[in-house]
Specification:
This protein is an alpha+beta fold. It is about 30% helix and about 25% strand. Strand 4 and strand 5 form a beta hairpin. Bound molecules: zinc ion.
Length: about 190
């Protein structure tokens, strides 16, 4: 299992370098992808970017498993446009916003452990990238899939979700679960004003 670094490590604030097709096919990177997948499952998380395990490379893995959805109501899943998403590897991505939205929901980060906050994100995006076989692919995503892609691709450019967070909503995960998880985000924002 790989160690996930926390905010304050410089690697999280650097622009990661791109990988060549030959590097992607190397045993070293293939092993890294497998280890990142296992680390993401163990965390557990819906995405993990290479800078989060201390590697300044433009590589991220994502997967949103159905079992993670059991904590949300059908209505919450629908509002978030959150559906199960198979394992996906994103390398050297170029992201284009298709629908700016924004959609604003609470999210957390494995590198900012123990805290969550509301983050406005584009509703739909297109990502041109390479996959784990160094093949060029285009991903068009909406809702939670689009949110995960934006979050992970931000990591590859040295951004962490707190950079985009509505800071008054920053709170411990524990307090989010205790007070706010079933409150509509607009109402939460309102309640947290002075
Ligand atoms: Zn993160």
């Amino acid at each position: 299992m790989l160690k996930i670094v926390q905010v304050g490590e410089a690697v999280l604030r650097q622009r990661a370098r791109e990988l060549s097709p030959a590097e992607i096919e190397s045993a070293e990177i293939q092993n890294l992808i497998a280890a990142m997948k296992e680390t993401m499952y163990a965390a557990p998380g819906v995405g993990l970017a290479a800078p989060q395990i201390g590697e300044s490379l433009q590589l991220a893995v994502i997967e949103d498993r159905a079992k993670y959805h059991q904590l949300l109501s059908p209505r919450q899943l629908q509002e978030r446009e959150r559906v199960p998403l198979p394992f996906q590897v994103v390398i050297n991505p170029k992201l284009t916003v298709l629908e700016a939205g924004p959609a604003t929901f609470f999210e957390g980060c494995l590198s900012f452990s123990g805290f969550v906050g509301a983050v406005p994100r584009a509703l739909a995006v297109r990502v041109e990238c390479l996959n784990e076989h160094a093949e060029a692919i285009v991903i068009e995503a909406r809702g939670w899939h689009a949110r995960i892609l934006q979050h992970e691709i931000d990591h590859l450019h040295g951004h962490v979700c707190i950079d985009r967070m509505l800071l008054r909503t920053l709170m411990t995960s524990e307090n989010y679960a205790r007070y706010w998880k079933d409150v509509p985000v607009a109402e939460t924002l309102q309640s947290l004003q002075p």
